[in-house]
Amino acid sequence: MSTLLDVRNLVTRFHTQDGVVKAVNGASFTVAKGETIAIVGESGCGKSVTSLSILRLIAQPQGKIVSGEALLDGTDLLKLSAEEMRKIRGARISMIFQEPMSSLNPVLTIGRQMTEQLELHRHMGQQEALAEAINLLKLVGIPQAERRVKDYPHHFSGGMRQRVMIAMAISCKPQLVIADEPTTAVDVTIQSQLLELIRGITDEMGMSLILITHNLGVVARYARRVYVMYAGTVVEHGPALSVYHHPLHPYTSGLLASVPRLDEPRKGRLAPIEGQPPDMMCPPVGCPFQPRCAYALPKCLTDRPELQEMAPGHFTACWVAFSGETLWQKT
Amino acid sequence: MTDTQQPNPSEMAEVTQARPHRTLLNDAWIRLRRNRLAVAGAIIILIFALGAIFAPLITKYNFAKQDLDSIFLQPSGVHWLGTDELGRDVFARMLYGARTSLAVGIFTQLIVLLIGLPIGAFAGSKGGRVDNLLMRFVDIMYGFPDILLIILLSAVLRGTVFGNMGGGIFVIFLAIGLVAWVNVSRLVRGQILSLKQRDFVTAARAMGGKGTYITMRHLLPNSLGPIIVSITFGVPRAIFTEAALSYIGIGVKPPTPSWGAMIHDGYNVMFTAPHLVIVPAVAIALIMLAFTFLGDGLRDALDPRSRR
Amino acid sequence: MILVLFVVAFVTFCLMHLVPGGPWDRDKQLPQTVIDNLNRKYGLNQPFFVQFKNYIFNAVRGDLGVSYIYQDRSVTSIIMGGFPVSATLGLVAFLIAILVGVPLGIAAAIKQNSFVDYFAVIFATIFASMPNFVLGILLMIIFSVTLHWFPTSGWGSIRQIIMPAFALAALPAAYMARISRASMLDVTRQDYIRTARAKGLTERVVLVRHILRNAMIPVITIAGPELAGLVTGSFIVESLFSVPGIGRLFVQSVSQRDYGLIMGTVLFYAFAIAIINLVVDILYGMIDPRIRYD
After folding, report:
1. Chain A residues inside the 8 Å CB shell of B9
2. Domains of chain B
């Protein structure tokens, strides 16, 4: 499998009134052609900012991509000119956002919002684009597509709008789709439908998919590999099943443990991870997870661990794991 | 990726609390101070206020004293801003006119607060039919072109007992105040309605707080921000209205000084003695500008969302 | 709307009758018999509510009564004489306000923190806080007294319209500039603009098709009431520049206690404002698809 996207040591910061927020603090990951990966983590861990950084949609001048590389088929996206980057957006990499209620322009019809992309990137004429838009709407499961294409966003429910977003994202046949928490703001009953849809389409069309979520239940089913992010950096990554069954980082283990499971007897309480996410203006020295970690060694306070491969394709950044004592694993 | 400095573990606790802690008022004050225009406005207002209060000490001329031998004098060392058509010192008239304008600004807003605040708070917290009734009333008043109403009201009130108080200025206070309170009451009501839903109110209720207590201790203090801003913008509007009325001739009665009246008096001789008209015009413009800058600054400072 | 007009009429009627003095006060006091006759002729000796009822009946049919001062002319004709003047002045001022204010606000938002932005904000603030007759006076001083470019009074030629129109337009222009700028900035921050950029659309398309269309909605919302205010005339500016419009008529009628004219002008004002607001509401529905009645 050849690599489509290779992100290396991405660092993105935001300059605010109170100080500098180090939102992404050295994140790296790869996506192969046609592969689906997941990036998981709590709110504020930097996963959204990472994807926005790849597409260079970070709000300037407050935000700045300080260093790192993002190689798409060998070309560093972070070094392209604005115009070159613009040609890539929507055409080679597209994005599905989290908030369907506010991500569509309220004064334009759905059809128009789809055809403008088709006309631009695929150079279609008006009629052709409209026909294609209708096709796409049918593909994502919107009934009465011919009529609905003239409707406005407020005529659609949240789940429907997300389907439209999906249609827009795949309309120009991109190589990579980034889905940033696509189901978080949608009803639970619709969530799995949407995920099936996204996964199904990207698989069928051979597109790579980055699925960003904080919902672990989703990950194992839809992604081949998982990246776990914490405090702006990747703390563990590997094949989904390997990470699930043998987490090599206490944070991952904590995340897994805090999700209620149907196949276990009802216990007294859920097991949350103690403590709060770190303040990204002054992130901890040493291992970022250390303040909340039940297994911390003295070394964890001072030295920051780097990712190391501990099992086939399975990397972690944890001094305790390096020493071989994965006390958090049940078996 | 390493930082330049590595604090030792015992310092880390403080380092991670580095973001400064600010209350809303504290924060607002700091932000206001940083806003140079607002500070400039405040200074201008202060200068006018001091000038108005200490007028007798600053100039030896009385604003009403006529000196028919020295009419239409240009600004000079004797008469700093010249004299008008009746020989009155223009600088003195400007200073005493500031009293009128500032008084109008302050007292009208006081009336607006005294009427608008309780009514708006009442409507907002009681809700239901009382609220509906009050808002109907407000809507109707909105249908009125307000300056017209003010003119009518002042004409009416002149004939009553208020007419002679303070040389007609009390009439102006009432006329403007009785029309302007509507805005504030709407504002207060809106604030209270939206705040009523918030969790801290439910919490207060859960602790056994009664209606009035909740309104006074919780709802009103949180609504203060927009109210303060509205009042600050209301002052220059009132000043303008008074000047306009006096210019037309239905404002304060002479010899009470008023910048609007000065413009009226000086209009006919604009070509020969322009300073008679420039001075009051600039004064009005300056003071209104000052209050507007201040109001803008207050609005930005008190808005919790506008942090950059 | 009807209710509002009715209450406006009623309140004005009451207030009018509370104004001290009567319509027949002159410098030389008229003999009482003459006053009584006049009162009888104009129905002023009838009970209050009867007078009001009569008035309303007539008004609905378009007859606003006769002016008490200009006894040979009906109020309606007087108003119709003055209204076109005020309307013209108001429209010109409105056009100036839009053509200057809105582009300025948009430009300021696009090039934030640049020279254009600072200039626009300062301009908007200064002109927004200066009362229009003060500005009028300053304009007069500069352009009439010093430069002798424009006359200070009169009506009819373009040269005579310019100064009062600008004096009147300054505040709305500043206000519109401010609203345009704020609205542009607000819309640019929205999620759907980020979506538009993520689709790879050019900055120009994003600006025109996505940002502008949304940003102009609040501008149009306030444009309506502004137009209403302008068209019904600013009595101050009219008095200052001796423009024979409705505003000046109203002021005169109050100081002369011309009951008929007072009632007529107030009702007319209220009516005009209500109509304009209605038109604006309809226009608003055409621009923003979210509030159409479909």
Report:
1. 301-302
2. 44-306 (1.10.3720.10)
